[in-house]
Design brief:
Blueprint (H helix, E strand, L loop, with lengths): L1 H4 L5 E7 L3 H18 L3 E7 L2 H19 L5 H39 L2 E4 L8 H49 L5 H35 L7
Parallel strand pairs: 1-2, 2-3
Length: 223
């Protein structure tokens, strides 16, 4: 059922939780799923909850400041508080390092597969607009390049077909006419070459006109 929801899509956002290791595996699953069912699709991977990193750092700094401003405790109490603070700092450090390693892992995965990657926060709105703006820009660029490729391919096919038709017509005409002198044959070949060149020039002009139309076409309606 899932492919029905993103059928014919040209862009997708895969969001994961930086604090959940299982969410990292979900990124690999869904990006693979999109590529299999959509072929080429502009994919952006969003690392959500990045506000927690900054929030935890600020909270730890506030706790340390409050401890420093509090009244001096007894030596035994001071030792207990110091031990507790050290344990909390070590736990926080380990969790923070684990989260950062996960982010770097996803960054490498996205770079190797040509996915866009951005750190954002749905809670604070940090980088949310940038996420969709970058994705829309990538989709627009892809659609424009695909349209230009189709035009070039069609123009080349028409040129080749016209040249083949001209060669076939010349061969048929040569078979029905009596033998000509070498000078006449050269003149005929030159005329045929000129005709082919004229046809190619006409095809190039048509291609340029079509490219200009593509540039003016509102591709955004397809997003």
């Amino acid at each position: 059922m899932a492919p029905l929801y993103y059928r014919d899509a040209v862009g997708a956002v895969v969001v994961y939780d930086i604090t959940a290791p299982s969410s990292l595996e979900a990124v690999k699953f869904w990006t693979k799923e999109l590529r299999q069912h959509l072929g080429f699709c502009c994919i952006a991977v969003a690392a959500n909850k990045c506000d927690l990193l900054q929030g935890e750092e600020e909270q730890q700094q506030q706790q340390q400041q409050q401890q420093q401003e509090a009244a001096p405790p007894s030596p035994a109490a001071a030792a207990a508080v110091a031990a507790e603070a050290t344990a909390e700092a070590e736990k926080y450090k380990n969790n923070l390092e684990q989260v950062k390693r996960g982010i770097e892992e996803v960054k490498r995965f996205c770079a190797s597969n040509e996915f866009a990657f951005i750190e954002c926060s749905a809670k604070t709105g940090h980088n949310v607009n940038r996420l969709f703006e970058d994705l829309a820009r990538n989709v627009f660029t892809h659609l424009k390049e695909a349209a230009q490729t189709d035009i070039s391919f069609c123009a080349a096919a028409r040129t080749a077909a016209a040249a083949a038709a001209a060669a076939a017509a010349a061969a048929a005409a040569a078979a029905t006419r009596p033998a000509m002198s070498s000078q006449q044959q050269q003149q005929q070949q030159q005329q045929q070459q000129q005709q082919v060149q004229q046809q190619q020039q006409q095809q190039q002009q048509q291609q340029q006109q079509q490219q200009q139309c593509v540039q003016l076409k509102p591709v955004w309606r397809r997003l």
